[in-house]
Design goal:
The protein is α/β, with parallel strands linked by helices. Among the domains are: 64 residues, 2-Layer Sandwich (Trypsin Inhibitor V, Chain A); 170 residues, Trypsin Inhibitor V, Chain A (2-Layer Sandwich), CATH 3.30.10. The protein is 34% helix and 23% strand. The protein has six helices and 15 strands. It is elongated, with a radius of gyration of 48 Å.
């Protein structure tokens, strides 16, 4: 090989080695540079964050954000109070006994949403009069609150007369009560089946009423009942302190009738309770089926029936009962009864 050829080959090999070394050095320097840049960026970010915390702009922006949050929260609360009418309450008046026309004339509709939801029949109030309400009088409500009213029906509810014939007296009383037909009187006649219903009559004219006849709810019925072959006498049930309806039912279930009724504290049937009966409650008298019991009522608003009944239980006869003046309480305003 010639000298010139060796020099050329050697020169190429040297250049190749130098090129590889240079590339390796370049890559190493590049990695070092990237590591240095990353470190510098981290240091700059950390320094920049703490640097920003020391600037007035940061606190200014934070204060503005807090103020905006508080403003939005206040606005939301004010809107909620306006929508729910917070603090604006009205006392519900007593609408009992008034009609819807009277309520509208008094402009109650501007404060309450008056809604009729039911009707009942009552002999005490005129048709269309309000007898019940919800919420109750003096309740605190918001403006526009629904007030549900029950009024007196113009026509009583009609019910079917059940067939009571040949039923026992107890069964007949249950059926009549379920249909809203009160018993006015029990007429006992000679009939072999004791306490069996022989006939059903209208109390107004004592005429028979056929099963299935449409009757206004509340129509009074007279029952004709058999005495049986061996009628026995009946003890008087204890009804002192009972309400009027309870007393009537107790006497009828005992095969007795209600005689004359007296209200010593006015015709307040809602609070009236049995105060005295004749024959006397504690006389232990025995009655015949169909006999009548006279009843005296007092209002439980101004008389202590609990103490009175305790005194009756401690005596052997009604004539020996001495009523203490402490039993009487201060009279309170009377409420009207629905029936």
């Amino acid at each position: 090989m010639r000298k010139s050829d060796f020099s050329i080959s050697e020169s190429k090999a040297f250049m190749d080695c130098f090129s590889r070394t240079e590339k390796k050095c370049y890559h190493q320097n590049k990695i070092k540079t990237l590591n240095v840049n990353y470190t510098e960026r981290q240091n700059f970010s950390t320094m920049g964050f703490f640097y920003f915390l020391g600037q007035k702009k940061f606190y200014l922006h934070l204060l503005i954000a807090i103020l905006l949050t508080l403003l939005l929260l206040w606005g939301a609360l004010q809107s909620l109070a306006w929508y729910t009418r917070h603090g604006q309450v009205y006392l519900v008046p007593d609408f009992k006994g008034q009609t819807m026309q009277q309520l509208q004339a008094k402009n109650y509709g501007a404060y309450f949403d008056l809604q009729i939801i039911d009707s009942v029949y009552s002999k005490k109030y005129e048709p269309g009069a309000i007898v019940m309400q919800n919420p109750l009088p003096d309740s605190k409500v918001k403006k526009g609150r629904n007030v549900y009213l029950t009024i007196v029906a113009k026509m009583p509810e009609m019910v079917k007369m059940p067939d009571l014939r040949n039923l026992s007296l107890r069964q007949a009383l249950v059926l009549l009560e379920e249909n809203g037909l009160p018993v006015q009187k029990l007429n006992y006649i000679d009939y072999f089946a004791k306490n069996a219903v022989v006939e059903q009559l209208l109390s107004t004219d004592e005429q028979p009423v056929e099963p299935g006849t449409d009757l206004p709810k509340g129509t009074e019925i007279t029952l004709v009942v058999g005495k049986g072959n061996n009628p026995t006498q009946i003890p008087i049930p204890f009804i002192i302190g009972d309400k009027m309806k309870e007393a009537h039912e107790a006497l009828h279930y005992a095969s007795l009738n209600v005689g004359n009724e007296y209200f010593l504290d006015g015709n307040d049937t809602a609070h009236a309770r049995v105060f005295k009966i004749e024959p006397a409650q504690m006389s232990h008298s025995l009655m015949n089926p169909g006999d009548s019991i006279n009843i005296w009522y007092r209002s439980d608003e101004n008389f202590d029936f609990k103490g009175y009944i305790q005194q009756l239980n401690d005596t052997t006869a009604a004539d020996s009962v001495q009523i203490d003046t402490s039993l009487f309480k201060k009279a309170m305003p009377k409420n009207d009864s629905l029936y």
